[in-house]
User: Which sequence fits this backbone?
């Protein structure tokens, strides 16, 4: 029976969320998009993707933090982004900052 306001009496939602990330590529795209919205820096790429212990994802996203001329002196940063199994952002943190022209750190 439907009560006023369109609610059904005596029903509860028991749906569980299925993992909606369809692999490493999808996790990388979701992490890059979420981070870009939060920190407002241009994403340069993704340098690592791995599964977390709870079946979520940990993604390293490289971003341009300070653009300079010449471009080889621009400052970039790598952020570690953690997603839950459904692809929602749990946390992020900057793990490195470096000049574009620097060799591997």
Assistant:
């Amino acid at each position: 029976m439907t009560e006023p306001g369109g609610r059904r009496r005596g029903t509860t939602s028991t749906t569980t969320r299925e993992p909606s990330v369809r692999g490493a590529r999808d996790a990388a795209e979701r992490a890059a998009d979420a981070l870009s919205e939060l920190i407002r820096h241009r994403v340069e790429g993704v340098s690592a993707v791995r599964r977390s212990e709870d079946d979520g994802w940990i993604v390293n996203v490289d971003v341009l933090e300070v653009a300079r001329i010449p471009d080889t002196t621009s400052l970039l940063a790598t952020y570690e982004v953690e997603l839950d199994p459904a692809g929602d952002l749990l946390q992020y943190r900057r793990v490195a900052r470096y000049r574009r022209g620097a060799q591997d750190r």
